[in-house]
Design goal:
Largest sheet: 6 strands, mixed
Order of helices and strands: HEHEEEHEHHE
Distance between the termini: 44 Å
CATH class: Alpha Beta
Shape: globular
Number of helices: 5
Number of domains: 1
CATH superfamily: P-loop containing nucleotide triphosphate hydrolases
Radius of gyration: 16 Å
Strand content: 15-25%
C-alpha cells in the first residue's frame, strides 16, 4: 500500500495551531490554474503557490500554505493539490488518491475546471459521490444522507473560461 508523508515543516506549523482548524483544498485537472486561483482569490497575493508557463505541472502531491488564515477563532489552512491527468503520471491510482485526500481533508472543497462542463469533469466529480458510497460500505452502520452532510466538505465548483 502506498503511503503519503506529511513534511516535517508542515507538521511543525500545524502543531503550533491552538484554534480549531478548517481546511480549504482545491483539485482538478493539471494545468488549469488551481494554484493561481488560490494565490489570487484565497490568499489575495500575486505569488504564493508555484505557477509556471509550461505544460509541466508545478505542484506534486499536496502543499499546505505556510501560514494559516485566521477567521474569527478558526485557523484556515489552504491546501493546493497536484492536478489530475498529468502526462507524466506513472501510477494510474495516484490521481484518485490525491483527489480523495483533498476531499477527505477539506472543510471546503473547490473543484476547479476550465471550459465547458464535459464528460471528463462529470467523471471526476462522480468520484466524490462514489467516495461516500465506499465509506458507507466500509461502515458497520448505514448513516442517512444528513449524517454524511456533517462530515463531507462544503463543495464549490469553479468553472473558468466558459462561454456559450
Amino acid at each position: 500500500m502506498l503511503a503519503y508523508n506529511l513534511a516535517e515543516e508542515a507538521a511543525k506549523m500545524i502543531k503550533t495551531i491552538t484554534n480549531p482548524i478548517a481546511i480549504v483544498s482545491v483539485a482538478g485537472l493539471y494545468r488549469t490554474g488551481k494554484s493561481y486561483l488560490l494565490n489570487r482569490i484565497v490568499l489575495n497575493r500575486s505569488n504564493g503557490f508555484g505557477v509556471g508557463p509550461t505544460v509541466n505541472p508545478c505542484t506534486k502531491g499536496m502543499w499546505v500554505w505556510g501560514t494559516p488564515i485566521n477567521v474569527g477563532k478558526t485557523s484556515v489552512l489552504i491546501v493546493d493539490s497536484e492536478g489530475t491527468g498529468a502526462l507524466n503520471d506513472s501510477d494510474v491510482n495516484h490521481d484518485t488518491r490525491i483527489f480523495a485526500l483533498a476531499v477527505l481533508l477539506a472543510s471546503s472543497f473547490v473543484y476547479n475546471s476550465v471550459g465547458a462542463i464535459d464528460e471528463g469533469a462529470l467523471e471526476s466529480l462522480s468520484f466524490v459521490v462514489n467516495l461516500t458510497k465506499f465509506i458507507q460500505m466500509r461502515s458497520n452502520e448505514e448513516p442517512d444522507s444528513e449524517e454524511y452532510g456533517e462530515f463531507m466538505p462544503q463543495f464549490f465548483w469553479v468553472l473558468r473560461d466558459f462561454s456559450l
